[in-house]
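PROTEIN DESIGN WORKSHEET
SECTION A - STRUCTURE
LENGTH: 437
TOKENS:
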């Protein structure tokens, strides 16, 4: 191992983790939090403010995880915080419509070309699950096509990976999912139009929907070509198949209209989560009115939620989305992110390290190779090993990133140019440590 000048102690977090392991499976309420991929133990976070978080040992970290995406305005944004406090004064949930339903619905539909109607749920997973059911109910067909390397929450039908050999039918990637159900999902590689065409033709007439992360960001950042995405749209039209964009990460992240707006491609349904709730639990799905009207109570597809559209999440969402409409918001975040990319990529090129930062808007990813990649099969095999060293190094220097080489980083409005300079300087040294052997 490497010795670092500054040693950060995390005794309190370590003790809390020992206690948590007795209370929770793996000590956590969501698996990646356990730091297993980096062979560490998680930090217990005490508070967050702007671009920074503090752990239970009073260490301060510059945060590029941003609660895995929702915190595009940084931690504890004053406008969002005020909106939440205001909302709480009048009660937390009624299980009945409130004026906030009108406010957020209008804000989104008036400013998003491809959303005619929307419905709120409580998580991204729930949004995807509901969109899949709606697509099946609307089309009267049952098969779903998904792409290898795209994550859509822990929905049964989508926790599926490609079967071996020539079989295109999916096999479940988690215990507890019936193979019968997994078989209803067909998995194809990203960026392989011919594979997609073959599957669409072979299963013509039985496919309800194609679901894709238009900006795949859960298994590396696998930015696709515009042409590829627009071919998917055209082929879905040709075969009368619904196209679902899972924009739980990209929605409101790469622009107010998300990836659909970024590429000017109209999906039939879009799923949201993360940013749309301003840091409170949320999910949503929307799209063409003709399809959305298939939902209960008007239509035959049942979908419901006790806490759906609760006033606190909606108030936080409205406040966050209004902030995002301020001029230059997205441009500023993109400029800061591109600084990371260009400064690091110049450095690694000059030093002959096979390492690139990939980025789009305010999302970035460490690619342990020297060329842009489009599919999960192209990710360098030694990524986890090298990433572990970088992760450890950065944590010791007060920089917090998602604890896995497959996770992306997020720049927020709260990061300053000085924060970015600090990150770039530390990351350069971390890369040196990882490549020095
Ligand atoms: C995070 C994510 C989900 C799941 O959302 P949860 O709120 O964690 O259930 C689904 N799809 C994509 C693309 C995501 O990034």
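SECTION B - SEQUENCE
RESIDUE ASSIGNMENT:
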């Amino acid at each position: 191992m490497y010795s670092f000048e500054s040693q950060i102690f995390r005794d309190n977090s370590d003790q809390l983790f020992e206690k948590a392991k007795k209370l929770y499976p793996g000590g956590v309420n969501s698996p990646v939090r356990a730091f297993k991929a980096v062979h560490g133990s998680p930090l217990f976070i005490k508070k967050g403010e702007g671009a920074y978080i503090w752990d239970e040992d009073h260490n301060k970290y510059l945060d590029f995880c941003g609660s895995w995406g929702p915190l595009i305005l940084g931690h504890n944004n004053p406008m969002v915080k005020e909106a939440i406090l205001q909302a709480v004064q009048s009660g937390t949930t009624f299980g009945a419509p409130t004026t906030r339903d009108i406010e957020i619905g209008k804000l989104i539909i008036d400013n998003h070309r491809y959303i005619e109607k929307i419905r709120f749920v409580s998580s991204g997973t729930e949004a995807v699950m509901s969109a899949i059911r709606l697509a099946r109910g609307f089309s009267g067909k049952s098969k779903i096509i998904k792409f290898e390397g795209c994550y859509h929450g822990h929905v049964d039908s989508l926790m599926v990976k490609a079967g071996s050999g020539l079989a295109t039918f999916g096999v479940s990637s988690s215990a507890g999912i019936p193979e019968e159900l997994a078989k209803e999902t067909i998995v194809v590689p990203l960026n392989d139009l011919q594979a997609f065409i073959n599957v669409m033709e072979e299963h013509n007439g039985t496919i309800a929907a194609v679901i894709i992360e238009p900006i795949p960001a859960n298994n590396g950042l696998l930015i696709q070509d515009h042409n590829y995405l627009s071919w998917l749209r055209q082929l879905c039209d040709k075969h009368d198949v619904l196209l679902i964009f899972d924009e739980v990460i990209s929605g409101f992240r790469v622009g107010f209209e998300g990836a659909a707006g970024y590429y000017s491609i109209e999906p039939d349904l879009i799923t949201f989560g993360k940013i749309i709730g301003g840091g409170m639990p949320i999910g949503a799905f929307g799209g063409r009115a003709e399809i959305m009207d298939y939902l209960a109570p008007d239509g035959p597809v049942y979908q419901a939620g006790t806490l759906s559209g609760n006033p606190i999440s909606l108030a936080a969402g409205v406040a966050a989305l209004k902030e995002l409409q301020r001029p230059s918001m997205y441009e500023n975040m993109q400029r800061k992110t591109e600084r990371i990319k260009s400064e690091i990529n110049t450095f690694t090129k000059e030093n002959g390290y096979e390492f690139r930062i990939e980025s789009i808007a305010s999302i970035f990813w460490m690619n342990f190779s020297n060329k842009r990649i489009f599919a999960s099969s192209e990710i360098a095999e030694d990524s986890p090993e090298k990433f572990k060293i970088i992760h450890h190094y950065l944590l010791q220097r007060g920089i917090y990133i998602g604890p896995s080489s497959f996770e992306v980083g997020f720049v927020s409005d709260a990061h300053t140019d000085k924060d970015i300079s600090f990150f770039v300087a530390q990351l350069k040294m971390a890369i040196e440590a990882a490549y020095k052997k």
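SECTION C - NOTES
Residues 1-5 have pLDDT under 50 and may be disordered.
The chain has 13 helices and 16 strands.
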